[in-house]
Amino acid sequence: MVSKRYPTSIEVARLAGVSQSAVSRTFTPGASVSARTRDKVLAAAETLGFRPSLIPKIMLTDRSGLVALVVGGLENAFYARVVQILSSRLREAGNQILLVPVDSDYTLDAVAARLTQYRVDAIVSALAVLSPDAAETLSASRIPVVSFNTPVTAARVGSVSSDNVLGGRQAAALLHATGLRHPAFIAGPADSPASTERLSGFRHGLREAGLPAPRVAGAAYTYEGGAEAATRLYAEGPVDGLFCANDLCALGTMDALRRAGRRIPEDVRVIGYDDIPAAAWGGYDLTSFDQDVPALVEAALAMIARMSIDDAADGERVLIPPRLMERGSTRV
Fold it and tell me: For the chain, first and last CA: distance in Å?
């Protein structure tokens, strides 16, 4: 015979010599129960190792206190920082975290339907919602959803993003100031909204400066992807300024250039995005854009609070200006 894993409130009531409702009131904040009864119930619960289940509370209030935190691509230190700060703030607010790992490092679409099966109070993710269909699937769940770096919103589905277009324009202005003549951009996956917006801003900034449009090489959001893309760009023609869609690509780019005998920044200036810790390491000293993760998280939590109160609230998109962190990779 398989023994029960957990003692029940009925067993606590029996041992304490009280009713089951008295046990329930003892573990309900603010409920009416005498001090003598409370002491008897707590003593019996301690003896049996009883802990009240959240399930009855969830069924009664339709609130679980759980927030689903969807993560992917944790090899990228940017996502790890988002998880760290967001988890800390959610715990401070009295929530528990349900960590949902996914294979993608930039899109939430593939798991949208699965997420709606969880009894959670909200869903937060650094991954993007790419399609209106995925946004509508999430919206129909009536669960507040906030994703980072995504242009798609719907009812109860909002977005908090770095101002990627602004970052791209600032990258163009900085490279122009260093005497740039042959710009290039190492992009992320073709359907990544963040990469697309950063390239758009970069192109716009180059036009404003009277510079040619950048040559573009696509890459995965990885060190290896950046190294391979940089090698392809240099095989096709001269480049003296590279803006990379994220820091991992930029680090791979820098090492590939150095292996090819290029000096940074004398021959090539390199800019990344995310300002991961490795960007400031002496071996890279990479100019990058800090997305201001604490500001992204606070905006996400404020959006969740608003959508939790107003069930019919439309999603919105909040843009957080990035901070340019200028380092040695662009100082000529």
Answer: 76
